[in-house]
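Entry for the shared binder. Reason: the reviewer on the internal report wants the predicted structure included alongside the sequence.
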Amino acid sequence: MASTSASAWTDASSNLLKVTRGFVLGTVDPGSTPGFSGSKTDAQTAGVAAAEALSHQQEMLFANSREGDPRKILLILQGMDTSGKGGIVRHVVGAVDPQGVSHVAFKAPTPVELRHDFLWRIRRELPTAGMIGVFDRSHYEDVLIGRVRQLASPEEIEERYDLINAFEQELVDDDTTVIKVMLHISAGEQKKRLLERLDRPDKYWKFNPGDIDERMLWPGYQAAYQTALERTSTVFAPWYVVPADRKWFARLAVRELLLKALNDMVLTWPPADFDVAAERARLAAS
């Protein structure tokens, strides 16, 4: 865990949130703050320092890519409607230099995309060296809504889990750190957030009547997530389930996961490929 907020963390979020063998989604309290003993105010204080550290590390990652370092990060955000994916993008990823970020919000497949296999459109949006790629929804929609809405046969859904694992192994082999986050919101909190969108004219644009249709299928989605987490949380690309009823905790936890990934790279600034003293002298004489 990064030292920026060590005083508030009682244990590493990466350990407590990781999906391992025997994981049961239904036992996770969406309102909990695993490993974090502080308040919302403490989280805000810790978040400022963590955001500065994240920005610093991200800049080094980007700088090293200019010298041939192939490493990059892919942050995958999944969750029910209103779980806070957009807030993570704005408040966590938004703290770093935008030139080092690629963000894609995947919607329903287009007719062109439907003519290809389900990973085709995903491969086209993968981050390049030095980038932090963010997927707001992803290839996991094809084993979530695909299963709940019966958009594919059970046999095809089953095959996709193995295809996803093989695909993510390819990414890791290509120097991509894959961070998969499920933002776990409760049905009660989702209802509150949907009502807020209906109560406020400035939130109407965020409301989609289809969100209520999907909400009616809540048990099916929870079952689909459970299976996806079981089948695709691997040693090389584990899932992290982040309780999301408290937005401040979800943002803090995802920031810590990103920061840990960057810290684990042991980044340093790339050395100058020119004579610094000579260039300083030339500048002085100019």
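Summary line for the report: The beta strands are 72-79, 101-105, 132-136, 176-184, 239-243.
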